[in-house]
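Minutes, project check-in
Item: structure for the 241-residue chain
Input as provided by the requester:
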Amino acid sequence: MSEAKVALITGSSRGIGRQLALDCARYGLSVVVNYVRSEAAAEEVADQVTHSGGRAIAVQADASVPGDVETLIGRTLEQFGRLDCVINNAGIGNTTTLEKLDAAQFEATVKVNLLSAFLVSQAAVPHMKAQGGRLIFMSSLAARTGGGISAAYAASKAGIEGLMHYYATYLLADRITANAIAPALIASDMVKAMKLPSVEGFPLGRLGQPDEIWPAVRMILETEYMTGQTIHINAGRYRSR
């Protein structure tokens, strides 16, 4: 992708999203750093990009709220005039047990993790059709195994992959690809806040690192012939069939 192209990363003030914003900028993309509450952190990411010679803006928007999504896409187009890639990264998760998980918690998780991906992708697609583009959905190992976070988290991530498959089929003629990336546990603020088992039993004896997601993103950016696929990054904890 050329320097003029633009990537929007939801939930990119910290964690995986922050790392991907920096990686996209190093790759030559202009970057939209999206956040809900962490304004200082988001502005720091955008400043880091611009101080390195790239182009970036930080935009406050709740990606699970239609009006906020309209603002997010509008600011992107106002600043850069185009949109070429969306990385649907916004997500929450907590280790609520099945017995304690209630309807409100379930709905809140699905809203942030799944509804946001639908709303942002739906709003972005019309602005990609002229030149083609990339939709990237952050899934999880939990989509395939259930994981150990919560039923709500697993269901939302499985839904992400179903949504990705729909977009991949629906947009075939528009040169817009849709693919998912499904990491195992990655060292991030969300994961660090959870009560997790010892990593000694994990492959390689450690969590994944945020910068280990970028190679998969880069492959998606550079590959027009791949769509409707999930790329698994989990050091062998799950082996796709």
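Outcome recorded: Residues 6-227 form a domain with the Rossmann fold fold (CATH 3.40.50.720).
No further action items on this chain.
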